[in-house]
Amino acid sequence: MQLGMVGLGRMGANMVRRLIRGGHQCVVYDRAAQAVADMVKEKAVGAGSVADFVKHLSKPRAVWLMVPAGVVDHTIADFIPLLEAGDILIDGGNSHYLDDMRRAKELQAKGIHYVDVGTSGGVWGLDRGYCMMIGGETDAVKHLDPIFATLAPGPGDIPRTAGREKPGGTAEQGYLHCGPTGQGIL
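The chain above was modelled as a monomer; its predicted structure follows.
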């Protein structure tokens, strides 16, 4: 699957590395051109601008923002004119759930899906995986499932949790869809 990653700090860059190792194609953008150049050396597709980034993505586009919570709205504003109905915008940071709910409503009016993904794993996520608490429309989340499965740590080698024998569940894989955006932490 293809994913666009915006923000190549320690977590964003390592998430891209994990996805590439898992066979996914990643298009990357960061304000720091050197961060993009470094990821291109690791087989990512680099973009020099937001517009260039969007042009490299196949429809429906999946754009993951791995930027500080304080710049998410500004970053989304840069993307809105370039995205189309059916595209998916993912916030992988630690935004406040009320902000996520507001963003989801605003983007829904434009036909753009918004998925909030509280992501935990830090710099160790590259090797250990990332635990994710996912909020968003079921169809958009299901579309992204190959990405989540690759980023997640997986079940490990410990015995299953009693009562978690439900086939197809993802909680023990390290990611969980909690329902509509912003509802996962209530």
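The beta strands are 2-6, 25-29, 45-46, 62-65, 88-91, 113-120, 131-135, 175-177.
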